[in-house]
Amino acid sequence: MALIALAADKGSPGVTTAAVALAAVWPRRVLVAETDPAGGDLVYRSAAAHGGPLNPNTGMLSIAATARRGLVPDQLWDHTQPLSGGLEVLVGLGVAEQAAGLAGLWPTLGRAFSQLADSPNAPADVIADCGRISGDTPAVELFPQAALVLLVSRTEPEAIARVRDRAAALAAKLHGGSRGAASLATPLIGVLLIADPSTSGKLVHQVNEMLMAAQTGARVVGTLAEDHAGAEQLAGRKRGRLDKSMLIRSARKVTVDLYQQYGAAWANPNAGAQGAHGGVHGGVHGTHGGVHGAGR
Predict the structure, then answer these.
(1) Deepest in the core among 68, 194, 214, 237, taking most CB within 10 A?
(2) Judging by beta carbons within 10 Å of its beta carbon (0-12, 13-18, 19+), is residue 279 exposed, middle or buried?
(3) pLDDT digit string, tens, across residues 110-136
């Protein structure tokens, strides 16, 4: 199992939507962690499993005190809350000013997230919503512990140029320099495009050529459909067959492709092939519930 970190360079490409959509169809037990230092959104837009609001004080805010005394991976579950659809989340900070309480703790959190896979009691993958990143964003300190860093990007020319440059900067920071396209350095750096399904195939080819020419070592791992209605359903703000939405169908394809390529390396020999939340082709958390889908 693994830590998968999702982030964006600039703008509002929908990092939170992507994180929750992937978690909704993830093949094993998964924890969504809102690790954006600027603050999370789930507490404001999602209902808890009991039907009421999520507790803003249980999550990244409460884990800060625990982590200062050392953090055993299983302790993460003491700070999580289930959403109305059943997805387990570590609620983010309320405001950016609270990030000061996590100063120096990001590597500790990264280790706990990555080691949760090996928990003898409740192993799980972690999908971390890191929000927007820059060179001095503390959430980047999670990345060395990740198996995969996914840069989420829309497909306007300026967005693609920024994600190319961000991938190159991350390669230099994490790997000590730019890498060729065939590099298998850890963590892997991938790009997840938010695109119109009718044009995604051509765009993937073009973006991969740009990433290769810049020797970023990154490549496009898949595309999520730009599906406003599906995002509204995922957020619980609109009724409908979420499992039939373009958003979830595309998220399912991304997870299938990821596990075909990397699943063996991420597998935990002590856990079964299927987690508590069903298979890759299985159901969706929160089809009519309060699972967050509003992009940032």
Answers:
(1) 194
(2) middle
(3) 999 999 988 989 999 999 999 998 767
